[in-house]
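Pilot study result, target chain (149 residues):
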Amino acid sequence: MSASSTPPAGSAAPRSTSSESTRNAWATGGSVFAAVLLLLYGAIGIIQGIAGIADDDVYRQVGDYVFKFDTTAWGWIHLILGAIAFAAGWGVLKGATWGRAMGVGLAVLVAIANFMWLPYQPLWAIIAIGIAVFVIWSLCAERGGRPLV
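Predicted structure:
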């Protein structure tokens, strides 16, 4: 009998493959969730933007703050960011590399814009910053060019 380099039948598979596939499953799940969050944030951003554009009385400033913009200008900012976020979320779901890159870049812009939006909607701005951080992490954690759904 000659010695072969293949492991005998019934032997356990290497553990790195199992933990690697588990890690990939978690990362893919995080990417799907990030894509859905981008879609949701996009829809809410569009509504938030329309509300800011339509009537300056919808949002009130809480206190004195360095970043003072007219709420109509904020409405346009949120409307544009929301539309782009929706498109990026759709691209991430379809497995497009541009959607991933746009999602990460847009999440950075959303975090900055919502930091500056704090005096108008403090609770929602903090929640949106947290969502943006999660989106950045999850889109950077998993790599792949295949559709997620």
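One observation from the pilot: The chain is about 70% helix and 0% strand. A full batch analysis is planned for the follow-on phase.
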